[in-house]
């Protein structure tokens, strides 16, 4: 079947480029006086973005309610704190300045402020949607870390350390940020570890949507183009992090990798994210690295079930020459090329380096949600096997 039935709408307005923060002025005119300013552990104070944003908020006469300290992989406790800040100050607008963690967190707060139930239970454990009559506080993002695509989607991932669950809920368009400011230069100050984790996150978002189905689908061609651009630019950026051309292409690729477009007409997999999120729930490791550490064992495991697509991936994304080789050989060569690229950019290649030990594996399996859209629905035994392989 080519392209099933779908609805596509993405309401997030993007301001892209070196001057993009100036547009914050005109966006702020649309919202009330009380602004909740969401940010992380302080990087924005060191690189000067905080001062720039504060100046613009003040110039527009806003009352600023600071909500800093959003940790990577935001927790349910922090979510409750953010809801309290929003309620106590009757905030009209939430501005997230940071990476995916700040954007996700801002969205989670935005839908919880006027929700009488416990948001963790409702939105994450029970996977319920936001009630139609719940007023959602509008969110805007100034992005400083590239990878998640959170700036233009409805995803909001929250971690509960007590129950060892890291759950992502992808909400509908009411929850998307109203706008996002994307200035590639704002990402220059990222430590290399975070930068490359973001590169792998982008790659995997595309793979999660690419490795499904056997039909002829425009989305797959779009994804091949995005992957080629990412591979090319990431090789430049690891050597020359302030290469604007490379960093801007990567920023743009990240947004399109997960703003719902390339999922249209696809069933999509998302199993690497489920394995990675289980690792994250137990170790609090950096999101992109949890994905890189489990990817190759996972893809080598499912390759036989989706061989034609893995062959296509090898040829069109990694330029593997097919002559004289079996489909399996071509597909394997493609994964080896991806592995070489992963080593070249320097991402985590096993879960041991993220803090996982043998005795944790059974519990990792318990924390792994099983998805059904890919080439193989994994059994518990297979998940354990993949985690074992990922330890090596
Ligand atoms: O907290 P600060 O001090 O700001 O430091 C952050 C943080 O330590 C730092 N950083 C960000 N921008 C910087 C910077 N340091 C220097 N200069 C800058 N310009 O980078 C660290 C990581 O930031 P974080 O926001 O945690 O990273 P990321 O953007 O990867 O977000 C990760 C979260 O997003 C979720 C992940 O699970 C994780 O919780 N995801 C959200 C998705 C979505 N909404 O669709 C999809 C993804 O698959 C992902 O699951
Ligand atoms: Zn991701």
UniProtKB/TrEMBL annotation:
Domain Fe-containing alcohol dehydrogenase-like C-terminal: 200-390
Top-level division of the source organism's lineage: Bacteria
Domain Alcohol dehydrogenase iron-type/glycerol dehydrogenase GldA stretches: 11-184
Protein name: Alcohol dehydrogenase, iron-dependent
Protein source organism: [Clostridium] hylemonae DSM 15053
CDD domains for this protein: BDH (cd08187)
Record keyword Magnesium present: no
Keywords carried by this UniProt record: Oxidoreductase
UniProt-listed Enzyme Commission number(s): 1.1.1.1
GO molecular function, one term: metal ion binding
Coiled coil: none
Pfam families: ADH_Fe_C, Fe-ADH
């Amino acid at each position: 079947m080519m392209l099933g039935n779908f609805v596509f709408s993405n309401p997030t307005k993007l301001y892209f480029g070196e001057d993009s923060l100036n547009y914050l002025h005109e966006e702020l005119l649309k919202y009330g006086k009380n602004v909740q300013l969401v940010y992380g552990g302080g990087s924005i104070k060191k690189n000067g973005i905080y001062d720039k944003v504060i100046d613009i908020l003040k110039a527009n006469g806003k009352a600023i309610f600071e909500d800093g300290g959003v940790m990577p992989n935001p927790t349910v406790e922090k979510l409750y704190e953010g809801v309290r800040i929003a309620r106590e100050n009757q905030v009209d607008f939430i501005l997230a300045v940071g990476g995916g963690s700040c954007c996700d967190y801002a969205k989670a707060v935005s839908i919880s402020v006027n929700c009488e139930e416990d948001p963790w239970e409702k939105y994450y454990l029970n996977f319920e949607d936001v009630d139609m009559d719940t007023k959602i506080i509008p969110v805007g993002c100034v992005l400083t870390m590239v990878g998640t695509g959170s700036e233009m989607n409805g995803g909001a991932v929250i971690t509960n350390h007590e129950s060892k669950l890291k759950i992502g809920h992808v909400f509908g368009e009411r929850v998307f940020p109203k706008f996002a400011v994307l200035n590639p230069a704002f990402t220059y100050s990222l430590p290399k570890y975070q930068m490359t984790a973001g590169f792998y996150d982008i790659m995997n978002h595309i793979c999660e949507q690419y490795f499904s189905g056997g039909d002829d689908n425009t989305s797959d061609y779009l994804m091949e183009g995005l992957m080629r651009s990412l591979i090319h630019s990431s090789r430049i950026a690891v050597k020359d992090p302030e290469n604007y051309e490379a960093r801007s292409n990567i920023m743009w690729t990240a947004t399109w990798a997960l703003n719902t477009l390339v999922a249209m007409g696809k069933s999509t997999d998302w199993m690497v994210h489920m394995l990675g999120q289980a690792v994250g729930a137990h170790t609090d490791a950096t999101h992109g690295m949890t994905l890189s550490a489990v990817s190759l064992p996972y893809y080598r495991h499912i390759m036989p079930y989706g061989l034609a697509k893995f062959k296509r991936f090898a040829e069109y994304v990694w330029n593997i020459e097919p002559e004289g080789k079996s489909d399996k050989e071509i597909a394997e060569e493609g994964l080896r090329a991806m592995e070489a690229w992963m080593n070249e950019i320097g991402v985590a290649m096993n879960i041991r380096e993220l803090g996982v030990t043998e005795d944790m594996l059974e519990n990792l399996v318990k924390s792994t949600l099983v998805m059904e859209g890919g080439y193989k629905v994994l059994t518990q035994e297979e998940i354990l096997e993949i985690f074992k392989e990922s330890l090596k």
